[in-house]
Amino acid sequence: MKIIKAQRAVRGWLSRRHTAAVVIQRAVKKYLSKKRELRVQRGIIEAQALWRGHRSRKANDTPKVVAIRHRLRKVNQRVKEEDRLCNKTTVAIDYLLRYKHFSYILAALKHLETATRLSPECCERLVNSGATLVIFTLIRSCNRSVPCMEVITFAIQVLLNLSKYYKTTEAVYAVENSVNTLLDLLQIYREKAGDKVADKGGSIFTKTCFLLAILLQDEQRALEVRNLPKATDRIRSLYFLTARKHKMDTERTVTKLKMNVSLNGSLFTQPTPRKAKARPRIAPDWVLRRDKMKEVVDPLQAIQMVADAFTLVP
Fold first, then answer.
1. Which residues form the domain of 103?
2. Domain total in the chain
3. Chain centre to alpha carbon of residue 138
């Protein structure tokens, strides 16, 4: 009897062992098969890419393009490690966090503007370093002098680049009093709307409007901002002031045109501009899309975007 029980136990153990071995073998075979399939698929994709590149070069290469390609290869061979974008970003973040001298801060912001415009990795590195809080603090500490306006312009552009990237948008909004800081900027620089403070892009006013509009694309964030004290009233006031200024400028332009027509004797009238119906998408600058929204320069269009996000204008 004991022998039979022992045999039954051994047979059960062997059966379970066999079943476990079958399960393990099946899983290993499935893993190896999938790995082999992925390797073959990757090889096919690489072969297709090589063939397409060869066809494109054969069809579109000109002596000028070939010369540019050779120059780029030579530049890449001579590039130093400290000149790489990621390393420059690290140095710029270090300058921004450690130094308080104006020239160092401005140089750091210029490097960060370029890095965040061209690389998503640099955007994530900037956010992980906690530099977004420093940038907002820097904006709040600036006055209306020309050097400070240049610092604010680059700082807003860095935040704008971060907000265009979906992985770092929340980091810009999550900074304490970020929306109030941006609303203060709109209030301060509303009469300078349209002035080009820096070489790239529009004014502080239009950049800040664009940044706010991007942050308020999320419904939850938009609801939180609408509940802020006086936020809606401030945007409504800014919108109507900008619209009134735009209307006055338009009437002044029309009057000048009529005077020119009466003096020149021409019956030519300017066509009425129409708004484009297509809605372009907001995307980082490293994303190449035909329907990508370009930076807004017109003050009325910029504040209109913010007002639409606040659902103030039908």
1. 83-176
2. 1
3. 20
